[in-house]
Write a structure and sequence with these properties.
Layout lengths: L24 E5 L16 E5 L8 H8 L4 E3 L1 E2 L4 E2 L6 E3 L3 H9 L4
Antiparallel strand pairs: 1-2, 3-6, 4-5
């Protein structure tokens, strides 16, 4: 978690909210053959993605539900921005549906 003052904290009781200024940042590691579709020449093997700061999260809860899990991240552009603030992180059992939806998008 990045606090409102820019410090990194691993306090499991740390919280986010629209007014806190705290942000939970996920350290994402790309799986082999983990890119479904991209127009980038190179997707970095590791990068960070921040969770939507408008929800009330507790760092320990996010760690417990996400650490070591596999997800599909819906990102765009060279800076790997979220396609939508909230629902950019999807469970892997949605992969076939996501692939079908991507077929209808222009390149």
């Amino acid at each position: 978690m990045i606090t409102s003052s820019g410090e990194i904290t691993f306090n499991p009781d740390g919280r986010t909210s629209p007014l806190s200024g705290n942000k939970i940042r996920l350290h994402v590691k790309l799986m082999p053959n983990g890119v479904i579709k991209s127009n980038l020449d190179h997707v970095p093997p590791e990068f960070y993605v921040e969770l939507w700061e408008m929800w009330h999260y507790q760092l320990g809860n996010i760690q417990g539900s996400s650490l070591g899990e596999e997800f599909i991240f819906l990102l765009r552009g060279p800076d790997l921005n979220k396609v939508y603030p909230r629902y950019f992180m999807r469970k892997t059992d949605e992969k076939s549906n996501i692939i079908e939806l991507l077929k209808n998008l222009p390149d």
